[in-house]
Amino acid sequence: MTRLGVPLGLLLVVLLAHADVAFLGRSFQTSRYIAGTVPAGPWGYPGQDPPGDYPFMDMAAPALEHYPLTRAARRQWVSGTLPLWNPDSGCGQPLAANMQVEAFSPLKLPMWVLGDTPLAWDLYTLGRLWLAACGAWVFARRWGAGRVGAPCAGALYALSGHLILQANMPYLGAAALFPWLLAAADALARRPAGTSLGLAAVATAALVLAGFPQSTFLLCLAATLFVAVHPSARPRLRLLAGWLGASALGFALAGPQLLPFLEYWAHAQHEHPPERGAGLFAHPPEHALLLLSPFSLGPIHKTWVPVNWHMQPGPLGLGTTALGLAALLDRGSRRRRGILAGAAAAACLAKFYGLPGLNEIVGSLPLLARCHIARYGPPVLGLAAAVLAGTTVQNAWRGRLEPRVLSRGLLAASAALLVLLWWHAPTLDAADRLEEAAQAALPAAAAAAALAALAGAGARLPRQALAAGLALAAAGELAALVPHGRPLRHDPFTTPPFVRTLREAMAERPGRLLGLDHVLHSATPAGHGLPEAGAHDAMHVRRAFGVLHALLGSRPEPNPTGGEVRSLDHPFWNVLGLRYVAARRETLPHLREGLRADPTPGNVPVGPLEAGRSVGQTFLSPEDRLCGVRLLLGTYRRENPGTLVLRLFDPDSPAPLREARRPAPGIENDRWNDVFFDPLPGSSGRRLRFEVGVEGGDPQRAPTIWMNPGDRHAGGNRTEAGHDEPGDLGFATLHAPAWEDGPEFRPLDALGGGPFRLYENRRAFPRAFAVHRWIVVADAQAARARVLAASEDLRRVAILEASPPLLPPEAEPPSPSVVRVESDAPDEVALRATMAADGLLVLADTWFPGWGATVDGSPAPVLPANAMLRAVPVPSGEHRVVLRYAPGSFRAGLALSAAALAVLLAAALARRRGTA
Length: 916
Known about the structure:
Elements: H1 5-17, H2 19-22, H3 60-78, E1 85-86, E2 93-94, H4 109-114, H5 118-142, H6 146-158, H7 161-165, H8 172-190, H9 194-209, H10 213-228, H11 236-253, H12 255-266, E3 268-270, H13 318-329, H14 334-349, H15 358-363, H16 378-397, H17 403-430, H18 434-440, H19 442-457, H20 463-480, H21 497-508, E4 512-515, H22 524-528, E5 539-541, H23 542-552, H24 572-575, E6 578-584, H25 587-591, E7 596-597, E8 604-608, E9 614-620, E10 626-635, E11 643-649, E12 656-663, E13 671-680, E14 687-695, E15 703-708, E16 718-720, E17 723-725, E18 728-729, E19 731-735, E20 745-751, E21 756-761, E22 768-771, E23 773-776, H26 780-789, E24 797-800, E25 818-825, E26 828-835, E27 839-846, E28 851-855, E29 858-860, E30 863-865, E31 869-874, E32 877-885, H27 888-915
Parallel strand pairs: 4-6, 23-24
Antiparallel strand pairs: 1-2, 3-5, 6-21, 7-19, 8-15, 9-14, 9-16, 10-13, 10-15, 10-19, 11-12, 11-14, 15-18, 16-17, 20-21, 22-27, 25-26, 26-32, 27-31, 28-29, 28-32, 30-31
Helix pairs in contact: 1-5, 1-6, 5-6, 5-8, 5-16, 6-16, 8-9, 8-10, 9-11, 9-27, 10-11, 10-14, 11-27, 12-27, 13-16, 13-17, 13-20, 14-16, 16-20, 17-19, 19-20, 23-26
């Protein structure tokens, strides 16, 4: 094949493998599967319900983060603004510093220019798969796979399970560019000249700009390991030093992306903090066999081994594995092939399939400490397997493939898969899924049969036919595993009726939004340009996270059902300017009672709550105004009928004090579930008992309640039908403190004619206001505690962590100060302040390094106020105050990038003069 013909052929492979997307109007997008992102589905709006299963490994991350944040970034690019700050999520947070946005990625340039239309998203995804195929072809050709085997390697890598399973994810960019990085590393190792140094630097920069942080830094580590064992004749230390120098230049070139990310990293709360052990988390080494499994692409969301869904690596394929093992068993160039396979295996086994010792070392490295999900590693092994398989195809083309070598490779791969099946057969049998697993194994069985037939007839077949048969057997197996049934192409940001309602209301009365019950998931409002208090990401500004965590639950993302939201009654919601809440009609009344919980974990199932059975708990209520119970419940089949009924008793009286009901189909599986009732005054220190059961339940599909083996609650035990039993239920009591100055929500409008309603908080503060008194505390933690205690009126007092360059007035001024917003852009807010006395202008946006201020053109400090917001000292009188986001990390990144570019240009000129 010609050099031009190979890329065209690989493009054809990618298009045919995804023919439903390329030609039939289907889509890689997942928004149709996420309630609250499109005006369709079972949420009270017209439209078709999405199917129950879905052909995506992760449908949430793209729909809730990648799509809306990309839309927010493009909106700023089009308006002529650098997309450095996102004002619409979590009260404001960095945008370009969030690497998954790929704000400066050359791969997204067509989308910035032409628009992030539905077709553009699908072409972007197909383009990354094609880029991965071409990169694998280039690297395989350099690594000895030949002009026939190298295109085969490109096709196998593009069809490998990881890339297919993660096709819609932001970190596919790193996987697509990884083979290009290895090709540049190989060029540098062979000839460390200025050109190869520049190529390695550019490849590293492209990976950083287009990657996801965890996958990016892991793949850079894998490339370094590859260089360290490269079979070059040059001195090892000199070779490694050259590579590290090229990598440093590449990181410098990507400085405008990298330095803001590192700044964000330093000021962020992470979902995978190493102090919890997540950074050192890894699968047992034997789970690496899952890479051979054909089932990861069969029933994607019905994991057939006890492994988390996000740990499914995606298969290499039995055919690819067999051909790769055949290449390792062949005597020719075994050293080079072994180096490639060994480096790839070591990179994965050191981190994700935790070999003792290695995992602790790699997992303790900076940045890699939080890189713990196994799905980031398979591109390394996938590329190695594809290149080795291409080498076997090339040997067959040249007539150098011995049938016994092919047979041994097939035998080894089949044996590994059979061991995997045997190991997990009890799990499959217990789950009644042996037949399902057998059906999912059909492509692997067909590939094995084809390879066995080719091995048997290899000596009698023309070498070209043998090579073509091997390539088709391996690629055909992977192509058969590509999921179909994707949704029709749609615009994830078609404006739903409730968004139009919100825009009209916000134009008249500005404020922030909180979406519950799947009306608008956190982060999706940013795609519509709606400011919200919640957020959805793996990183959050630490200051904002601390406060929102206390108000909302485990994350700044409110639980879609509202069950994890602790309070919408706390006065700080007014300070944040929370004016609008979209939720089900029955949700908001429960959330008006600022919930406080004392969760107790449970780990032993009591059993099904079928009709006629009641299980309960006696306990001492630790606080007043008991308003509910949080139960750890599960279900057998996630589709239980009936109604969960909870009754609260005084143990000395048979008459219930309170009774609450909850439809059993709404129970979250293996999660805390809240059952609310009207607050009970005088409950503090009182001995009470609750009983929970099901009316109309089915024993085969009944809810399950969980318990602890020991009694953890003072004054009580588990009860069965009113009688004490040993043990303690997994439960928590919910209490409702009464905030007199909390939000006052009133129904504003029914949304879309369904069960949802838009509520307006009539007590929300304006986004900017002035105060003339302040309290200085020691640090951010003390400020957060003071804010959450709600002991001060934050409309009149600010909580600071450092004294401002002003003295507070001796008395409150007789007339109020007035602040209004003159202009508002993502990275600049201009305000007009008429101050009745010296004071602070408080802006209810997240404080973060890089925000500066001027008062009438003179610089002024931006102080953290009220634990997470911004405050600017302003003297009395009328002033124009401008806050601008111009992070030093971005400016330093630009300077670093320019310096790196100058070094590369100087090296190129020096080489040209030397050649002349």
